Amino acid sequence: MSNTVITNPIFWSDVPDVEVIRVESTYYMVSTSMHTVPVVQL
């Protein structure tokens, strides 16, 4: 067995369509911004 300790950060979030992406060894949480600026025309 490994002695590695893995912790999951717990934080408040109320964001839709959450995605987790990895860039090398760093992880990022990304989401849409349509809940803060709805009806934005592209």
Q: How many helix segments?
A: 0
Shape: elongated
Strand order of the largest sheet: 1-2
Please tell me how large the radius of gyration is: 16 Å
- End-to-end Cα distance, whole Å, is 52 Å
Which band does the percent of strand residues land in? 15-25%
The helix-strand sequence is EE
Helical proportion? under 10%
Mean pLDDT: 75
Count of individual beta strands = 2
The biggest beta sheet reads: 2 strands, antiparallel
| Helix/strand/pairing category | mainly beta
Low-pLDDT segments, ≥5 res: none
Structure description:
With 42 residues, this protein is an all-beta fold. The protein has a domain at 9-37. It is built from no helices and 2 strands. It has strands at 19-23, 26-30. A two-stranded antiparallel sheet has the order 1-2. β1 and β2 form a beta hairpin. The model has no long low-confidence stretch (mean pLDDT 75).
